[in-house]
Amino acid sequence: MSNEPGPSIPDVYHIPASVPPTYTPPDSYDSFRGTHVPLIIDNGASNLRFGFSTSHTSPSTSSLNTATLTPHSAANVVARYKERKYNQPLLLFGDGIDAESGAKGQAKTPWEGDVLLNFDALEHALDCAFIQLGIDAPGVEHPVLMTERLGSPLHSRALTSELMFEQYSVPSLAYCVDSIMSFYQNNRPQASNAPFDADGLVISFNTATTSVIPILNGKGVLSHAKRIPWGTQQSTEYLLKLIQLKYHSFPTRVTSTQASWMLYNFCEFATDYPSTLRSLKVPANLRACERIVQFPFALPVVEEKTEEELARIAEKRREQGKKLQEMAAKNRMEKLVQKETDLQYLLNLKDGRGDNKREWTNTLQSEGFSDDAALDETIKKLELDLKRARKKEVEGGDEPEEPNFNLIDVPDTELDEDGIKEKKKQRLMKAGFEARARARREKEKEKEEKEAEERKDEEERENNLDEWAGRLRREQEVIMNKMKERGRRKAALSDRKSAAAQARMKNIASLAADDRVSKKKRKAGGEDMFGADDDDWAIYRKINTAAASSDEEEDYTQLQVIESKLLQYDPTFTTQHTHAALTTQQSALISAFRPQYEEGDIAGSTRIHLNTERWRVCETYFSPGMGGVDSAGVGEVLQSVLARFTEGEKARLVKNVFITGGPSQFPGLRDRIYATLRPILPPEMHLGEIVRAADPSLDAWRGMASFANTEGFKNVGVTKEEYEEWGGERIKRWWGGNWNPAE
Amino acid sequence: MPPKGGSKKKAPNDGSTTHTPTLAEQLSYLQSPRPFKNPNYTKNVNRRTKNLKTVLGQERERERAGRERKRQEREEREQAMDVDGAPPQTEQEVEEDVPTYTSIEAPPSLLPPRHYCDITGLDAPYTDPRTGLRYHDKSVYELIKGLSAGVAKDYLAARGVNPIVR
């Protein structure tokens, strides 16, 4: 959440929840049975639109306003899926696939990009379409008008024809290009049977391609048409890739459907892309124009324990601790008692030692002692333990008692073997004792010194705050500089060609060089005197590329101490000045581009901010190179298409520029095309208003329906007899269809 | 062939299941009758769905063969005319180029490509020599320095530049 004043926080848009599809019963066929009303199929890569060219209520074709007809429209995907729950095989079509989550993985579409390839899928799709229309005659007894792609490969057409004629027994079949039909719908001649002779330039935005088709005298000049391999499919993928790169560790997966929803709702064309970018350089503008998309998230359930529960838990823990302590004390008591009884037993044993030596040794051995001395030792140890334990209980402290060192000063000669051993032991103990005392004294001295320093510091601080603060700040800077220097040095060392790395190599080489030791010395058997001088070893610090971590840690802790003192006492030193804040500071641009949310902000971390992507994705239509496709963009293609016509023809074409297709609804497209065309035309040529299809998605179908109701329709189709004679690839050439018949 | 069933049946399965049909089953078209299909038509089941590459390759071949043939015809015609000695009066209409799938493909771009920042999308005057990413200013460069090799490659792939794996 931005906390700054100024422009209001933009609205947050939520990803729409997926709506389960509803079942629609098939249409009634009664009004169409036996009437031979043309059947219109707009076979699009994203949607299949199908229907009869007239409506139910008014089957007469004379005065029909096809602008009100609405075809069935379904996503052009088919899935054969075996349902897990009841083990039923299913054939789902279009939106029905959303009903079964597993079916999406099995979905097949007849189109691959721009080419109709998968005819099984097409067959199923057409089956479902015809079933939806309710056809129950022994064949599809209607002349069919279908769309195909601009310059569709003959293979696709052959198989489609085969399917339609052989499988569905249609009487005649005609192909047309969808964008030309959309143009027809919007430029229809007034009289219903007048020939179509409009002029215009059609820019069609399809799913996987974008095409530019010039139309002269009502005839599509397809030889001069051009097709760009960039369409909504590629744009959606590009947007998805951008989002995934920007939000690398996003908690949920962003799907293509969500990406396409975002594309349709937030993306727009920039009239002048470079100037738009220049305005977006300023972080404030970035924030102003961003759109926030909130993804669904789940709040983690935090069990709030009530006060009493917390108290109860604490009580329990304390009791447990006490119990453990008691148990430990009991153990110790038991052990003590055990030791006492042992000691007693052994003493009794010793007292009860008779004069008989052999018996004594036998008894000893049966007890597990090798000889008399061992027994004495054990007894002494037990006594010591007991004494110590009792003292601990009584005093609770361990006092270093001064053991006796009486034998140290006695010369060796006066002692016997045992005495000598004793003396050695005592000497060791004394040395240890003295060392410990010395260490204790040093520690105390250090503590006193530190306290004195702190007192001095406090005095200085209380007397002269500014100077004290200044001094500390300087120290902090020095340390930070050292750390930065170290970081820089580490980076320089990793670069092979930097001066630091080369110096390092020089050092290594000189260490390993043969002429380190002068020839004379070597001949005389001299050795390399490397380590004699202590400072020589310092060279290893320089060579070692691994960071000196102990130094870093020291610096770091020192820095922490200084910073905490400053934070506490100096009002002008805020958390912003600490080293941690300075190193992780992001520039204003990056934080506007991709705002970071706090750790615990679940809602924030499932948000996507779209700022530059909104224009970047649409710009790819005009320069597909941004998205990795090496092709000319819409602007360039328009220019090259227009260049192949004469001036007069050009004038006729640009008077009526027409855009159609789903993406033509994105805002800003018309201005952009106008701005693209105006510079490449001579200034006196009149560039008409860019016209958009009245209904970009359905107008192609409507145009086909209108055309099917005219007289001209009968002449353009291939009848069944002609199909059987020529085969599936041959078509009649007409103004709305493709030009590539087979030879 | 008599239609399989004149009545229009709804999609749910018949009898084999005893549960109420789920939404998916209602939407399924598997069980619906298809009287309009010609039962005599046997699809060539051995026909494998050709993939895009083969189809386009076929088109190219056909186009090339067509062009060869046309050229030959023209040469023959010219020779015939020369033999006749008469100038070609009835010149046939210059055959309009028949557009095929490959011929109407847009040409590659001739404009010099503009450099856009791979991270932010803004203008990018600079390029990072280590990864090849384009960036907008030095704060973006700090960000790039911290990227791992995989992420940098992903950015490049979005632009269509696929660096050779070193």
UniProtKB/TrEMBL annotation, chain A:
Renumbered residue ranges of the record's region Disordered: 434-463
Gene3D superfamilies xrefs: 3.30.420.40, Actin, Chain A, domain 4
InterPro entries: Actin, ATPase_NBD
Biased composition (Basic and acidic residues): 434-455
PANTHER family: ACTIN (PTHR11937)
Family to which this protein belongs: Belongs to the actin family.
Name this polypeptide is given: Actin-related protein 5
UniProt organism field: Hydnomerulius pinastri MD-312
Phylogenetic lineage: Eukaryota, Fungi, Dikarya, Basidiomycota, Agaricomycotina
TrEMBL record, chain B:
InterPro entries documented for this protein: INO80C/Ies6, Vps72/YL1_C
UniProt superkingdom: Eukaryota
Main location: nucleus
Compartments where found: Nucleus
Composition bias, Basic residues: 1-10
Vps72/YL1 C-terminal domain span: 115-144
Listed Basic and acidic residues bias regions: 58-80
Stretches with biased composition (Polar residues): 14-31
Keywords: Nucleus, Transcription, Transcription regulation
Region named Disordered: 1-112
Gene Ontology annotations for the cellular component aspect, listed alphabetically: Ino80 complex
GO biological process: chromatin remodeling
Xref: PANTHER family: INO80 COMPLEX SUBUNIT C (PTHR31200)
Protein known as: Vps72/YL1 C-terminal domain-containing protein
UniProt organism field: Hydnomerulius pinastri MD-312
Organism taxonomic ancestry: Eukaryota, Fungi, Dikarya, Basidiomycota, Agaricomycotina
